[in-house]
Amino acid sequence: MLARHFLARAPGFLLWGAMAVFSAGCASRPEAPIIELPGGAAAATTAVRLTALLPADVLLIGEQHTAAAHQQIEQQVIAILAARGLLAALALEMADAGVSTAALMPSATELQVRQALQWDDKGWPWKAYGPAVMAAVRAGVPVLGANLPRAQMPGRMADRTLDVQLPGPALKAQQQLVRIGHCNLLPESQITPMVRVQVARDIIMANMLSQTVLPGKVVVLLTGSVHADRRLGVPQHLPSDIKVKAVHLRAGAGADNEAADAFDSVWPTPAVPETDDCADLRKQFPPASKPGSAPAPN
Questions:
Q1: Where are the beta strands (DSSP E) in the chain?
Q2: Facing residues of 222 across strands?
Q3: Between the CA atoms of 131, 67, 298 and 239, what dihedral angle is there, to the nearest 10 degrees?
Q4: Is the pLDDT reported for residue 298 higher than 70?
Q5: Could you count the other beta carbons within 10 Å of the beta carbon of residue 34?
Q6: How many CB atoms lie within 10 A of CB 20?
Q7: DSSP codes, 155-192
């Protein structure tokens, strides 16, 4: 009653000042999270699979970047964890370490989010990854870049200390994966520098995850399946006291030699149409390929 009396009798400039203070107070209030739980049979299956993996401090989701079904599952995982109040952060191979949406509100626009993450739509189509990213933003959960910045790659290629960060068999497996992944087109002299970059990526992702862990919640990393591999990738560089679970989103039939200990769970999805990836790589890495070329995302 007193407040109404004051406002009714106050001079104009006082009334304006009171309204400004009130408005500023409202603007400074944190926004409520916007939670949208996915529906349908596919999301229900994802929820059951996800529950079977929990609890975990870190959840690695290893995808095939060209499989749209994998990005759909990732959006479901993020939305489900957010709805349960379990999502601590979303880390991305698709954005460089050092960028974050932490300063944005849940109502931030997609443009604001892309700008905050310095999103490279050519390398990582926003149409594919935007739904998972926005599910985290809407929930008020930070999205963090976790990949090695391209500017640091030349230095890592020359960093001999990266040659001893993996057990011998894992290092040899990484070398062979680089050969196969580049269709045996790379000069042998480039294999070691390429593997060093791969290891450096795993290390920087692991550091980001270990710094983001929150008790009772889950940090999710979206990445390629090799990075998520327990024997070869990010798990090799995480502290032993962090409980990590690794999921392989597998498009089509699995390889005959797929190791059972590489992942905690394999979630199969339909095969994707075959493409001649080597044709593109022949253009990127011709026989006279220049030393120091950056590796393709994996």
A1: 58-63, 87-96, 143-147, 218-224, 244-251, 265-269
A2: 61, 92
A3: 60
A4: no
A5: 15
A6: 10
A7: HHHT-GGGGGSS-HHHHHHHHHHHHHHTTT-S-GGGHH
Residue with tokens 């932490």: 102
Residue 79, phi then psi, degrees to nearest 5? -65, -40
Maximum CA extent, the chain: 85
| DSSP per residue, 255-270 | PTT--TTS-SEEEEEP
Q: Which two tokens stand for residue 187?
A: 């000069």
Distance, CA of 55 to CA of 218 (rounded, Å)? 8
- Domains annotated for the chain, with CATH where assigned, are 41-159+202-276 (3.40.50.11550)
Contacts of 9 (CB under 8 A, 6+ apart): none
Q: pLDDT tens digits for 241-290?
A: 999 999 999 999 866 556 789 999 999 999 999 888 788 778 776 655 44
**pTM for this entry:** 0.85
Burial of 9 from C-beta contacts in 10 A (0-12 / 13-18 / 19+): exposed
Residue 186 contacts residue 179 (beta carbons within 8 Å): yes
